[in-house]
Each structure stands twice: as structure tokens, then as C-alpha cells.
Design brief:
322 residues, five-stranded mixed beta sheet, 38% strand
């Protein structure tokens, strides 16, 4: 007879699994975060979330939930779903807390629900759960993007959404678990993800989901991000919105470095920017002032600023003017 201890923990997104599933650079960042306490940036975290989801689906997962329930010796006596008591078999106690079984989650109707545990010490623990349904008609679209600003695939990603007539029909657009900024054209019913936003993603495969108000439906876009930046070239991209001028920061690693000069070419001439007014250097990168970006920016194109650093490295800062 098989016991819980025979299979408990058999499917864990462990370091060994992550080493197989994650891109090498992302796994290196995750390893440093676990063992050295280093900060994991948002782009890498999105890759981890997306890879974990794909790994879970490969193992047959159909639902997921985030569960944070500390246990201090108490036990759960009852589980209420929207004030109605469920059978005791709807949940179980594990060494890490309480777990609602997948068969119970499958019965939830589309929308938000309240799960309330009544504990042996008289206290209650409440969790909000949102259930959504996917239909076979919601086929994933595919898109490809290249992070290198001179590539032909460095372009906005636009997809036509079925059943969406206005931006107000969209609840949110997310990559992994992180909301994305987007634009929606009602005339063509097209969703657009700007290239400067996509350029912040590491190379890899992602699922972008579009959640709508029509029954909680979800439309998916399978996005493949590549990077054909030539070896030895340091290039970063950021967006500048001319309608809302603001300084733009490029995440150039500045630890132990300083800026020697920043230049920009226009009309066959090279212009040198002034430190302290045209640009600002800090430990987390280089920021270009809004007046400079507006002066040299061309709508719909990337203006490239060349930054020469004290260690003789050259960084190409591409400001995408929207």
C-alpha cells in the first residue's frame, strides 16, 4: 500500500530541475539569489515563473494557486466555500500548511470565490481565489522578437484579438505573473506590445496571456525572444514617449566605472552631451535627460547614443521614440 511519504515532494521545481529548464544566464541569477542573497530582477523572475508553469503543465497540472498559510500546531476543522461548508475530503493538511485539492478547485464557477478555514484554535483563515476557464477555440498565436535594435525582428508585436472590441474589454495582459503595458487599436481590434518593452526580456520562450471580461476568457500569445547582438557589442534599449517627456534610464553596470563621454550623431555630425545636464550617471545606470531625448529623437525610430566608459568599454544606448 502506497503512503503519502512515498510520493510527497516527488514533483518539486528544485535547483536540479531549474538547471534543466532555465536558460543558463537565468539559472545563474537564481542560484546567486538562493545561495548569495543577491536580488533577482523582474525579467529573470518572469522567465522562472513561465518555465515553472510549462514544467507543471508537462506533468499534467491544470490549476495553480499561491498559498501562504503558516501553521503553528493548529489544525483545520472545516472549509467553507462562499459560506457553504465543504466535505472534509476537499482539503488536506501537509507539513507546509493547508492544501485545497485539485478536484475541488475544478468545480469552482468562473469568477472570484472566498475560501475560509475554521481552525482548531477558534481562528479563521481566508483566501480569495479567482477561477477562469479556457476554451478550445482560444488558440495561441505565435510571435518572434529580437532584442538587437538593428535586427529586422526588432519591432512591435501586434496580435488581433477575437471578441474584444474596446480596451475596456481587457482585464489585463500578463507575461508569466507580471502585468505588461500595452496598446489597443479599436478599429482593427489589435493589441500591440511595444518593442522597447520586449527588449527588456532575456532570450527565451514566453506565454503572454490576455484576460478579458467576457467570461474570464484568456487568449494566449506564444512569444519567442532572441538576441542577435554581435559578440563584443554592448547594446541596451529603452523607450521615450514624446507625448509625456521624461528622463530615460539605461541599466548600464556602473560599479567601478565612470562615463568618459556620450555622443550622438545627427545630420552627419557628432554631438557630445554634457554631464550633469544632458545625462546623469549612477550606480544603477545612465539616465538621459528628457530635453536631450526630445532634441535628437525621431518618432518611430531609435536614436543611438554612444557611451564611452572609463574601462574603455563602449555602450550603445538606443532610445526608441514613440
Amino acid at each position: 500500500m502506497q503512503t503519502v511519504s512515498d510520493f510527497f515532494g516527488c514533483h518539486v521545481f528544485s535547483e536540479a530541475v531549474m538547471k534543466q529548464k532555465l536558460p543558463k544566464a537565468v539559472f545563474k541569477d537564481v542560484y546567486a539569489a538562493i545561495h548569495e542573497g543577491k536580488r533577482l530582477d523582474l525579467a529573470a523572475a518572469n522567465v522562472v515563473a513561465n518555465s515553472m508553469k510549462d514544467w507543471a503543465i508537462e506533468l499534467g497540472a491544470t490549476h495553480f494557486t499561491h498559498w501562504f498559510q503558516p501553521m503553528t500546531g493548529v489544525t483545520a476543522e472545516k472549509l467553507l466555500l462562499d459560506s457553504s461548508e465543504l466535505a472534509g475530503t476537499a482539503f488536506e493538511t501537509t507539513s507546509r500548511g493547508l492544501r485545497v485539492k485539485a478536484d475541488t478547485l475544478k468545480t469552482l464557477s468562473t469568477g472570484s470565490h472566498t475560501l475560509t478555514f475554521r481552525l482548531s484554535d477558534g481562528q479563521t483563515a481566508t483566501v480569495m481565489v479567482t477561477a477562469a476557464r479556457e476554451t478550445a477555440a482560444q488558440l495561441a498565436q505565435t510571435a518572434a522578437f529580437d532584442r538587437y535594435y538593428r535586427s529586422t525582428n526588432f519591432k512591435d508585436i501586434s496580435v488581433k484579438l477575437e471578441g474584444v472590441n474596446a480596451k475596456s474589454d481587457i482585464t489585463k495582459v500578463v507575461l508569466g505573473l507580471t502585468p505588461l503595458s500595452y496598446e489597443f487599436d479599436e478599429a482593427s481590434r489589435t493589441l500591440t506590445l511595444r518593442r522597447a518593452t520586449l527588449a527588456q526580456l532575456p532570450s527565451g520562450t514566453y506565454t503572454v496571456t490576455v484576460e478579458t471580461k467576457s467570461g474570464g476568457s484568456v487568449q494566449a500569445v506564444d512569444l519567442t525572444v532572441s538576441d542577435t547582438t554581435p559578440a563584443g557589442v554592448n547594446a541596451l534599449t529603452a523607450s521615450y514617449r514624446s507625448a509625456a517627456p521624461a528622463a530615460v534610464r539605461f541599466a548600464v553596470p556602473m560599479q567601478g566605472r565612470s562615463v568618459r563621454s556620450i555622443t550622438v550623431a545627427q545630420d552627419g555630425r557628432a554631438y557630445t552631451l554634457n554631464a550633469g545636464t544632458d545625462y546623469f550617471a549612477a550606480s544603477d545606470g545612465i539616465s538621459l535627460a528628457a530635453n536631450v531625448l526630445g532634441r535628437y529623437g525621431v518618432a518611430g525610430a531609435c536614436t543611438v547614443y554612444t557611451a564611452a566608459l572609463s574601462d574603455h568599454s563602449i555602450w550603445l544606448l538606443a532610445a526608441d521614440c514613440i
